[in-house]
Amino acid sequence: MGEIEQELWSHHVKQSDKQSNYIDITKLYDYNRAFLAFQKNEVLATMASLKFWRELQDKDFNASKLQSYGYQISKCLGQIQDAAIEIARVYPEDIKFQFRYGMFLIKIINNDFDGTECFKLAQNIYINKVDKRDESRTQQRQQARFEDNAASCFALLSTDSQNFCHIVHINDEVETIFGYKRKELLGENIRALMPPVLGPFHDGFVKKYLASGKVELSDKIKQSLGQSKDGYIFQIDILIKIYPKISGEIQLAGVLQKSILSQQVNHINQDTMLGLDHVQHMILTDQKGYVSNASFGMLNTLGLHPKFFRYQHDSLMSMIRLDFIAPTALDPGNIELIESDGMAVPFDTSELLAKVESEQLNHDEIELVRPYLKKQDFFVRMKKIPISETYHANLYILQSIKLRLDGSSIVRQQIISSGGGNDEERQDINFPISFNIEKKVGLSLCRKRVLKKEALTKPALVLCPPLAQAPAPSQRQCVISRKPSPTVVCLEPS
């Protein structure tokens, strides 16, 4: 064992002893190898069993074939039992394995007794975990998501100069999360699971991380974006660790899961009051506004198929800018507001098929997206994703604006009293509003307080309805102005 491996292993052991909830990456790796061995032999034993019974039903069955199939079943069963012992050693409370093992014993081996015992054990483990869930802290519950192969994609990456960041091991959960078969990714660079606007920079991040010498062994969950095999983006949670057992090279271990949208849950009540749909969609662009990917929900809302976006860093002609489908989204006067507070932006994909080359989509794909190509308003927020000191990507979060039965928007007005003192009285009211437009600035959630005037006794914060769908005049008349900043002023009777 070399000096580097000894030091890494020493740090790993100290961290494991120090923190009871520390995720042991070596156990995760051992578990995944044992589980893959179980899956492989489970399939082989099943195939041999089917051949055995098919041969036995033949009137002129071949005894030597039956003996051969029986030997294969016994051999696979022995290797499955070895895998079961290893999994019990590493993660004795793995519900998924106990269920799979029980089904195998009952359906293939015809061992109902041991199979039922596996089911009982899985049920007891589940009950114990539910009882302990309320007692554990939030961080511990978050970390527990990555254990026991609980829908987690586990990948081991090479740091060899010839195969830098290439996948040397990955489990079958990658198909559930990303849509790829395991064999499709072995030997490929990990950036195959990343959006093209982010992927090319990943190797540089890892090299910088390794060169810094600051190896983090703590269980810090990071958020990023993944790309499915079909080209859709989604949010993922990642644990990144150095695998402490070195055989010739340092290896990086990553555990990935689809994000639990815990941070977005806090906004659901607020968004409901604002008249926004709680479902959030995503569009990812580069710094110049060229679209890289969209989330799956954008297919059924605006007909945005992944094949529309052929993002390439060196080919601008084949790419689509965001302002082609959202003309006001990249206006200099709107970018700051979209990033800080959010803004309602009109989208129009009705002419998108005329923009893209016809051979990009086949006939079935065109017929799939055609009904959803339309005009629609979305409330949009934007987050910058820093990539380097001078370059960033933009992630746009879109939410549909709810409409009343009469076609007007559901909006939220927050009335702030103009009386003295620091205390503010707030009242939330949903109502349709009309506009006396001084200058059309688009549709926005205006959080700026207006200047007090004699005609105004109460300044208001309003989520504007789509201008094209403004309802008939109501009791409140509103003015949209650019100065001193994009603002909606609602006149109230004194």
TrEMBL record:
<dbReference type="InterPro" id="IPR035965">
    <property type="entry name" value="PAS-like_dom_sf"/>
</dbReference>
<dbReference type="InterPro" id="IPR057352">
    <property type="entry name" value="TPR_TmcB/C"/>
</dbReference>
<dbReference type="InterPro" id="IPR052994">
    <property type="entry name" value="Tiny_macrocysts_regulators"/>
</dbReference>
<dbReference type="InterPro" id="IPR000014">
    <property type="entry name" value="PAS"/>
</dbReference>
<feature type="domain" description="PAS">
    <location>
        <begin position="156"/>
        <end position="196"/>
    </location>
</feature>
<dbReference type="Pfam" id="PF13426">
    <property type="entry name" value="PAS_9"/>
</dbReference>
<dbReference type="Pfam" id="PF25474">
    <property type="entry name" value="TPR_TmcB"/>
</dbReference>
<protein>
    <recommendedName>
        <fullName>PAS domain-containing protein</fullName>
    </recommendedName>
</protein>
